[in-house]
């Protein structure tokens, strides 16, 4: 038995006629009669008792009709919901986003996306780029924003933002007067870093080690604005992307270009390779690729 059999029996009882039921289902009368006969053979019992031109339901037929209405209603709801998903009238996307990336680049993008796809809801998870990558690999996120380069064989991505780190120092700091700063000049400074869940945490430490010193880390935080405030309070120095530096209070801190080495800050849209991606997630990937390519 399948959904077509239930529809056929329901229409026969609705019209009290095989012929009219066939017309309503846009099939021929012999087709519907043959389908009911095949069903009876499958069930090894009759569904209708025929008495001349009249017919009535058997006990098996009455049992089918008992469940026919709710089954057909649920099937219609399922079909409608699948159509909505197929045509992007509904759906949910789980997006991971580092705190620095979200406010700086994505409010307008999310607004434009939801104007195009008003039925799709966006669920945001804020965490460091390293954790976002782990969530993607574990399947708890559909897409995410990560920091390049990414060391993973199961993550696909495309770049969206290219920036570089600057050194954030208190406004009265001696280094604030310099046009640029070499990393080696920071060997005696106190460092304020992002927490260990952020990709920049290890990257800055590794760059310092490559420059010949171990950074003296005095504070860690997950909030870039709080890091800026701590630098402004002369608790240490920090490194933030140029884009973020522009949002800091220039009366308290100054951002000086970092050289030797230049440390890039490159963001990418990422997703797990070779796994199921919903139509909504595919739409987000295509939309952000279009938006950031244009900008």
TrEMBL record:
GO molecular function (one): DNA binding
Gene3D superfamilies: 3.40.190.290, Winged helix-like DNA-binding domain superfamily/Winged helix DNA-binding domain (1.10.10.10)
UniProt keyword terms in alphabetical order: DNA-binding, Transcription, Transcription regulation
GO CC annotation terms, alphabetical: cytosol
Domain HTH lysR-type: 1-58
Organism annotation: Paenibacillus dendrobii
InterPro entries linked: HTH-type_LysR_regulators, LysR_HTH_N, LysR_subst-bd, WH-like_DNA-bd_sf, WH_DNA-bd_sf
Name listed for the protein in its UniProt record: LysR family transcriptional regulator
Transcription keyword on record: yes
The family this protein is said to belong to: Belongs to the LysR transcriptional regulatory family.
Pfam families: HTH_1, LysR_substrate
């Amino acid at each position: 038995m399948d959904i077509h059999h239930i529809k056929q029996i329901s229409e026969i009882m609705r019209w009290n006629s095989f012929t009219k039921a066939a017309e309503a289902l846009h099939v021929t009368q012999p087709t519907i009669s043959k389908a009911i006969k095949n069903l009876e053979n499958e069930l090894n019992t009759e569904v209708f008792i025929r008495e001349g031109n009249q017919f009535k339901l058997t006990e098996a037929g009455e049992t089918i009709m008992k469940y026919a209405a709710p089954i057909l209603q649920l099937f219609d709801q399922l079909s409608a919901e699948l159509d909505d998903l197929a045509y992007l009238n509904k759906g949910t996307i789980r997006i991971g986003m580092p705190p620095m990336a979200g406010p700086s680049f994505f409010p307008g993008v999310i607004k434009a996306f939801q104007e195009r796809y008003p039925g799709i809801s966006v669920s945001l998870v804020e965490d460091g780029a390293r954790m976002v990558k782990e969530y993607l690999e574990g399947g708890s996120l559909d897409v995410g924003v990560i920091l390049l380069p990414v060391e993973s064989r199961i993550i696909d991505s495309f770049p969206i933002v290219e920036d570089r780190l600057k050194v954030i120092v208190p406004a009265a700091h001696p280094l604030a007067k310099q046009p640029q700063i070499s990393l080696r000049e920071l060997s005696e400074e106190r460092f304020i870093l992002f927490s260990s869940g952020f990709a920049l945490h290890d990257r800055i430490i590794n760059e310092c080690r490559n420059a010949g010193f171990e950074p003296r880390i005095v504070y860690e935080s997950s909030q870039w604005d709080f890091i800026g405030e701590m630098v402004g309070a002369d608790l240490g120095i920090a490194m933030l992307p140029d884009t973020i530096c522009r949002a800091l209070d220039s009366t308290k801190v100054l951002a000086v270009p970092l050289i030797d080495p230049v440390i890039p800050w490159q963001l990418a849209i990422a997703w797990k390779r070779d796994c199921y991606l919903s139509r909504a997630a595919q739409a987000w990937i295509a939309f952000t690729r279009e938006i950031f390519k244009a900008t």
